[in-house]
Amino acid sequence: MLSVENLSVFHGDAQALDDVSLTVNKGAIVAIVGANGAGKTSLIRTIAGMHRPATGRIMFGDADIAGLPSHRVCNLGIGQVAEGRQIFPSLTVSENLDMGAMLPRARAKREHNRQRVLTMFPKLAERIAQAAGTLSGGEQQMLAIARCLMGEPSLIMFDEPSLGLAPTIVHDVLKTIRDLNMEGITCVLVEQNVAVSLKIASHAYVLENGRVTLSGSGAELLSDERVRQAYLGI
């Protein structure tokens, strides 16, 4: 469904990604793990059209989307739940959802998708007229996911969805990701919580200093001695 081929990205003179290649099969949950500064967010933002690669291809289906503006990438069906949630704090929950439905691909199913996400996240239905900035951290993450779903994505990239959340809320967020995947949405999960992300991933990649250093099934990497020592402290 998504193929990144020999991707290199620079921020000024600093190289963020160095010849990165990976594959995301349709219906999979693919985890991308690594330490801070490894290049995980740069990878997500480049796929999303927020950074322009120096070299390489990003194939989504049969289309090379490398360098396309982000609104065109979104309208092809790639959604993003950004690090730090990035909701519109002064807008209501309802208005945030409406923003997610502005893509041409999503307009016809706006009301259907609204009912879907409010059923999925009943707390948002209770707070539909409330300013998004007054929600709890967990509720804001729910809203970020719901707003993304309003855009009718076939693939969603989650960038650090557990960041700053209580353990019980993290469990709920990861259950939501699994549930969406079971409904047919392909998921890319960028997460510092390595153990949790590898447990739910069908395939995973380890990024170090902008390069892919390991790949395999989630179970394989979870039992890999190098991963256990570097990221799990075992």
List keywords for this structure.
6-stranded mixed sheet; alpha/beta; 4-stranded antiparallel sheet; 10 strands; 234 residues; globular
What does this structure look like?
The chain is α/β, with parallel strands linked by helices and 234 residues long. Helix content is 37%, strand content 26%. The chain is built from 10 helices and 10 strands. The model has no long low-confidence stretch (mean pLDDT 94). Helix 3 packs parallel to helix 6.
Summarize the structure in short.
The protein has 234 residues and is an alpha/beta fold. The protein has helices at 40-47, 70-76, 93-100, 110-120, 122-126, 137-149, 167-182, 194-200, 218-222, 225-231, and strands at 2-11, 14-24, 29-33, 55-60, 63-64, 78-81, 155-159, 186-190, 203-208, 211-216. The model has no long low-confidence stretch (mean pLDDT 94).
SSE blueprint and pairings:
Blueprint: E1 2-11, E2 14-24, E3 29-33, H1 40-47, E4 55-60, E5 63-64, H2 70-76, E6 78-81, H3 93-100, H4 110-120, H5 122-126, H6 137-149, E7 155-159, H7 167-182, E8 186-190, H8 194-200, E9 203-208, E10 211-216, H9 218-222, H10 225-231
Parallel strand pairs: 3-8, 3-9, 6-7, 7-8
Antiparallel strand pairs: 1-2, 1-4, 4-5, 9-10
Helix pairs in contact: 3-6
The description of the largest β-sheet is: 6 strands, mixed
- The gross shape turns out to be globular
Broad structural category: alpha/beta
- What's the number of helices? 10
**How many whole angstroms does the radius of gyration measure?**
17 Å
- Estimate the mean pLDDT confidence: 94
How much helix is in the residues? 25-40%
Which oligomerization state do the chains in this entry correspond to? single chain
Task: Let me know the number of strands.
Answer: 10
SSE topology string: EEEHEEHEHHHHEHEHEEHH
The spatial strand order of the largest sheet comes to 6-7-8-3-9-10
Low-confidence segments: none
